[in-house]
Amino acid sequence: MRVSVYIAASLDGYIARENGSLDWLPGIGDGDSTEDYGYHEFMETVDLLMMGRDTFETVLSFGQWPFEKPVVVLSGKRLAIPDNLCDKVETMSGALAEIVSRLEQRGVRHVYLDGGRTIQGFLAAGLVNQLIITSVPLLLGGGRPLFGPLERDIRLRHLETRSFSSGLVQSRYEVIN
Ligand SMILES: NC(=O)c1ccc[n+]([C@@H]2O[C@H](COP(=O)([O-])OP(=O)(O)OC[C@H]3O[C@@H](n4cnc5c(N)ncnc54)[C@H](OP(=O)(O)O)[C@@H]3O)[C@@H](O)[C@H]2O)c1
Description:
This protein is α/β, with parallel strands linked by helices. The protein is 19% helix and 32% strand. The chain has helices spanning 39-44, 53-61, 96-105, 116-124; strands at residues 2-10, 14-16, 48-52, 71-74, 89-92, 110-114, 130-136, 144-145, 155-163, 169-176.
């Protein structure tokens, strides 16, 4: 099973303000642009999304559920999933390797992993294959970091970098675990 991260970060590496706000993040197709930064093409390759509880709560706050694919939310808490999402969202917790093998047994082949601390946990466990990171040209100076402390270096192979007229720069890396 492949695990991919597709995420936007400020140039100084934050994915949200400390209070969780994404007000600095350009929306897909903002202004006159129809540019989606490869989002739909990537989404088509994904079988399932896995996200941390904080990211799930942010998505819920948007009001309209944006995903057609099944979603797994990681949480150590007992989460109340809204009735209208019961057939789309399930919660899991526990050892990451066990979660991955449960999904593999179901035939899941490509997971889109989302949420900073969640991504950090999977990276530390050697369970991420690909990083697609879109840098937004601003410095937030603080907030929720994409990456965090590691007990060992994680080597990456750079595959591609694209720049967009909006100023966003997207790089794709393969993780050499
Ligand atoms: N810039 C972007 O493209 C982008 C993308 C995604 C998210 N975001 C933003 O980033 C913020 C969320 O990121 P974050 O780093 O704060 O948190 P996160 O990774 O979304 O969620 C962290 C939570 O996930 C749960 N979790 C993670 N790993 C787990 C495991 N192995 N087992 C059980 N539970 C696990 C825990 O929930 P419990 O505390 O319930 O146990 C943990 O507190 C939000 O503000 C969101 O809007 C930005």
